[in-house]
Amino acid sequence: MSSQAPTADPKRLESAPYRAAFERLEAGMNGLEGSFFHERRQQGQQALEQLGLPGRKTEDWKYTPTGELGRLDLEPANTVAEAQLPVLPAWVQGMDAYRMVFANGRFVEALSVLPQQSGVQAEALSSAMERDADAVATWFDSLTRLEAMPYAALNSALYQDGACIRVDRGVAVDKPVVLLDYCAGLGEQGLVLPRHLLVAEAGSSLRVLHVPMQDEGIQRLNGVVEAFVERDARVEYELLQDGHADTHQVQTVEARVCEGARFDARSYQLGGALVRNDINVRFAGEHAEADLRGFYLALDRDLLDHHLILDHAVPNCYSNQLYKGVADGHGTTVFNGKIFVRKDAQKTNAYQSNKNLLLSPKATVNTKPQLEIFADDVRCSHGATSGQLNPEALFYLQARGIPAAEARTMLLRAFAAEALEGRPEDAFRERVLTRLNERLS
Predict the structure, then answer these.
(1) 3-state DSSP call for residue 174?
(2) What is the DSSP string of 10-37?
């Protein structure tokens, strides 16, 4: 990823008002001023001021108006009072898993269950920065492309806190880790900026279940996850975004996958006024693999967006993208998937598929699969389809006594099922299926 200086883009929105929030943050840094982490904050702020926030004339955002997140008077949300702390959902409390809970970007130790397993360190990112600054500095903010991603730059400048999960060489974490990012009482200006760091050392394995949550009020969240998958390690990352008409969320996931390692990412977007995921994976060693899958369901006036980049920078790597979407009512979906195959990345295998169902004349599907290949010994394919439910399949089910509405829901569930293939039969999977059925009905 390039670290060159950002270039101003006249198509973007002015972002100078965030400078005041940054200056207030700097005034209370409590000893971190002048540190590596402070310098990275400054670089994020400088990149943001150069770039500005993206507007509709910016190519990667032309189908995705930023809405609430494009407001210029937003600032990092206040700490949540004890009386406002979330009541954890029953599926979270009953799941056999570790968990790390963050409220308005700050770690809530009282609601968290941290792993006690040898070789696994899970703590607040701020604590890791103080306890082991040199180690954290080798990873932190090294994957984000500040010169190209203004929302990642905004997070780098103003992030509140997040999780730091490190798994030692050869250790398999015995339970999944649930990351809950909770928004509460944001009011007119609050913006939640969580920052999570995942490090799986050689031969280790980790499964992370990431769930941004909110009360019945506004959710404004701009998060970043950096994942380092070292040699022969495996990281499984699943993201459930179950929003409503006041949900405005941008999530950036950056992953580096080393030799023989595997990174699996699944995302389930089940609603929100604006929900966008930027998932970027770079191969840093041969014989690495990445499998990215997702399902999105845009109803009413939901706007759901996936932007993916798979960067094949070395030979003999494999990647797969499979994303399925449904748009109904006035819903809008966006899929933009890019596969780069660099000049020296021979023997690459890369596949991409995007399939969409358009159920309403007022719904919109935007899909743009892309391949850029600079090597000549590769196997690559991409494709996109948009259509309606098969009327013959509907007739077949109705002819066997199934009511029309139930038959429609059955076909939609079957369409979505591929995104969940291979997932463990646990409370998280059941939660995804339950909410999917509720939304489809």
Answers:
(1) coil
(2) TTSBP-TTHHHHHHHHHHT-TT-TTSHH
